[in-house]
Specification:
By secondary structure, the chain is α+β, with helices and mostly antiparallel strands. The protein has 8 helices and 9 strands. The protein has a 9-stranded antiparallel beta sheet with strand order 1-2-3-5-4-8-9-7-6, sandwiched between helices. A hairpin with a 7-residue loop joins strand 2 (63-67) and strand 3 (75-79). The radius of gyration is 18 Å and the shape is globular. Belongs to the Cdh family. It comes from Methylobacterium oryzae.
Amino acid sequence: MRGILVAAALFAFSAIPPAIAANPARDVLWVALQGCLLAKKAAGRSFPCLAVDLGDGGARPGTAVLRAPGQPTHTVVMPTDSVSGIEAPVLQGPQGAAYWRAALAARHYVSDALQGRLAPSAVGLEVNSVGGRSQDQLHIHLDCMRRSVVAALKAHGDAVGERWAPFPVPLEEVPYVALRVPADAVPAFNPFAALARVPGWQGHLHDASFAAVEADPGDPRGGMILLAYREPEASAEYLMDHSCRMAVHWRSG
């Protein structure tokens, strides 16, 4: 196994796309991904990733799941192909929906790390803007949401409809727009394409960021709620709590 890991590291550095290699500080995730792919292909193991799906060459593109170093719940889901991030045109088509489904399916890794103290349905998903991210390989963050965000969705979720509109209150001092996705539409949904439908956002997704989480259990319309905003360094990741204090809140609530 040690020999495989050495070979994986050498292969990873040689496989960095030229556009990414121009800024090595932003290619760490890509390098780790190449190690996962080589381990999967050579030995049938996903390490250092939690899981690797090589895809089927068709409707299901390859994806990998990786735990953020030193963070027991913070997990990311990424394509095995080179996809820069939220602004990538390929995400406007079927691949965007496929990566979304892969992220939904991976929420259990956060719940498992908490030994079931938080339901997978309460795990949030998030993608940062170009200026708000540190890596240039698409990665969908999975983790707990802040208590304040959970409380805001409980109090104001009924104001969120199936068309983009301002969320009634700022979240972490930032004004967001919000969209409800009906429960039966969630599996086929493409959040990247939905962002392009926010008035004035088409062609400007490089500075957009969004988070998504299932509606409060008491919300009669259910489904998922997307929260998004645009700024040069937009990062809806601030709506997440990587220490997962809300796991205790959810259990008691």
